[in-house]
Amino acid sequence: MVRATARADACSANGPVPRAAEGVRRRELLAGAALLPVAASLAACSRNDAAPYGGGWVGAQVDRGHKLRDSKAGTWPAPSVQRRAGAIVIGAGISGLAAARAFAKAGVDDVQVFDLEDAPGGNSRGHAMGGMGCPLGAHYLPIPGERAVEVIELLEELGLRRTEHGQPVHDERHLCHSPQERLFIAGHWHDGLLPPVEALPADQREATLAQYRHFGALVAKVGDGCAFAIPTARSTWSPALSALDAITFGQWLDAQSLNAPALRWYLDYCCRDDYGAGAAQVSAWAGLHYFASRHGFHAPGDGSDDRDGVFTWPEGNAWLSRKLAAGIGDRLHTGRMALRVTEGRQDASVDVWNAAQAQVERWTAPRLVLAVPLFIAARLFDAPPPALTQAVAAMRYAPWLVANVQIREPVVDHPGAAPSWDNVLYDPLLGSSVNAPVGPSPTPRLGPALGYVDAMHQSTRPYAGPTVLTAYWALGGDNPGQLKTHRARLLNEPWSAWAQAVVTNLLPAHPDLPDKITRIDLMRYGHAMSIPVPGVRSGAALQALSDMRGPVRFAHSDLAAYSIFEEAMYFGTRAVRG
Ligand SMILES: Cc1cc2nc3c(=O)[nH]c(=O)nc-3n(C[C@H](O)[C@H](O)[C@H](O)COP(=O)(O)OP(=O)(O)OC[C@H]3O[C@@H](n4cnc5c(N)ncnc54)[C@H](O)[C@@H]3O)c2cc1C
After folding, report:
1. Does the C-beta of 115 come closer than 6 Å to ligand 1?
2. Counting atoms of ligand 1 from 1, which one is nearest the CA of 472?
């Protein structure tokens, strides 16, 4: 549990709020609630003592990471323990767990894995509320394409995939049940996430449909061949892709005259959902990769279904990270933060802070895999490799908020599509402000909110009952100024203000939500994932880092310029197998 420090008023109660201390009642929440930005919620919070539900910050030991950032060379105690290992992995996210798995498969025993948090999994960790599993971060894995061989191998090992008559067959019990996704727009729920033209103002329908079709055709054209593969290292890179990586997706869309508000809202939503920041920040390569690497883009009525099957579990991808971690046993050390890495000719050493014992341990091995974000890796070297310094200088990291909202009974629904796994609210404000001048904004708009997934959607119980709604907020914003502001707010504003903002955001679709909440647990990520901003994917630095073949190797999904499960599995495995 992390304590917010900025405000000492009653809003900074980060632990459970006793129901007796209820301050904000439902009527107050509803009054003027619709479409209030976070700032307004924060103001409301400062007038009221506490929220009518319990909860707190969970999952991240923010103070540990900041201690590493703020520490000066020589300020940590000298190592009190010195050990040797067969191999060392720093970071127990998916990439680190994949590296440990690859070492074990290569016959290297005595692989020691270290992570600064108290549980393995990194961005793919899980949580539980009222006995119900829910995600703290990543929540699904699409059925992998044939180039994601590391993921296919893992799925086969876990019994989730087999081959019958030459065709892959996936275990239906772990695939997302129907209905998968729906969009709340103009007071109705609609099947799928692309705004249906019939829900738009009459004067926008024809032009929007034409732009949907045009964008679909452009995606099909650029996606021909092997240009967009997952993992991206297996795509055929070309000068055309470098050109796409040199501009933002927003600039590219403007150049194609693709400006229909509904299309721009949807594309912006997709960028925030996958990359943590909007189309004004990610490169055109990344914006197109989202579609061209998987299912394409299908305009309504073009005869295709653009929905891939996805694996999902109540606890999200923690189901996968726990399976990966299980094989490591007591060689997995949590609450251990790498402080300093030194590389020799034959081996490498790491000084690790053992938080429980408040001592430094020095571990040495012939091979050391760094599966931590690159901006952290750069802090671990006295003299970082030039490619690492260069890569980090070009990178931007998106902050994220994940809110697990536990409810005691189902919320009342608006008419239209049935409750789905993924439930998204259309935000016309965002779509219509696409061409607004960018600049630091004092408050996050509603744009960062991406809707929620229902953690009990995969349950086979025959009735709708208590559940956890996991709401996602991508806080990378539209420009570096917004990103910085959001990150500072995430660190400094109290749990109660963010919890209230999350509830407020969902009120247009579920006005009865406040009455049904028992608890809200929030997970905040200051630097969750690399945003694929122009120039990062096509620059030489990431390639140079992933090609390093000395005792120290790099494995984090940052090497792909963006973060998904398949990339983490690829780079973790590659760091070991070469
Ligand atoms: C909110 C959110 C939702 C997401 N949703 C999805 C999704 O649905 N599907 C999907 O495929 N991907 C999703 N992702 C992307 C996700 O990041 C990847 O799937 C994957 O989990 C990345 O794994 P990784 O090992 O590369 O990185 P990380 O998860 O960043 O792992 C790095 C690890 O290093 C540790 N570490 C850092 N510093 C130190 C240190 N000094 N010493 C020791 N350990 C250290 C960290 O604690 C962490 O465990 C999501 C990400 C976020 C943030």
Report:
1. yes
2. 1
